[in-house]
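Sample A.
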Amino acid sequence: MALATLTFSAPINVSCQVGDTVYYVATTTSGGFSVDNSDIVMIGDIREIQNPLGSAPVIIAYTTLGYNELNGLTNKFILFSKDNKANLNSPVGYYASLKMVNADITNPAELFSVAAEVFESSK
């Protein structure tokens, strides 16, 4: 598998990391955001990031694209996505315990409702 070297003129996003997938899409001068998913081209998986916060960061990615496809990336928008399996966190082993006590021992109390809300933060 070939390597693609992408050099930028500004720092890259701090959440970009080795193992992410890098893509490109053509830009237009009209400033529109109408992009079909078929227009997004996968470059490959990021293998190395050099000088990410510097003035000329470099991303090296495994790719199956040919020289002609990679040679025209100067006017393209480069984006990346995370691997969902590697970046999915779950609260393994976390639990909650609750004890409810009526402090007024002379008058009975009635409990109307108890609820809990749980959600997955990275999907």
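Sample B, a different protein:
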Amino acid sequence: MLMANGLKLLLEMWGFDVTLAHDGLAAVAAIRDVQPRAALVDLLMPRLDGLEVARRVRADARARAVFLVAMTGLAGPSDRSLIDSSGFDAHLVKPIDTQALRALLPAG
């Protein structure tokens, strides 16, 4: 939760409106309801992991256009393949490089 709160503050400093969800089910609901241009999804969330969040978002016509960014400590080739096949548009390895994150996000 500390990382999420820190990222929220950083994104708000960059001018983004941020909605936090601390578990996978809440993340799917927030993405569906808010319909953000981009969503940062940690793969290790309670109740529903990030891979399933991506699958559900991609299956929902109301939310499938959201730019999904996976955030994880998994960095191997097989991990990357699994992340890509789940529907993510981008993948950032923790600790998150803030310059790489900013470059991925659409202009606020």
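Observation for Sample B: The mean pLDDT is 92.
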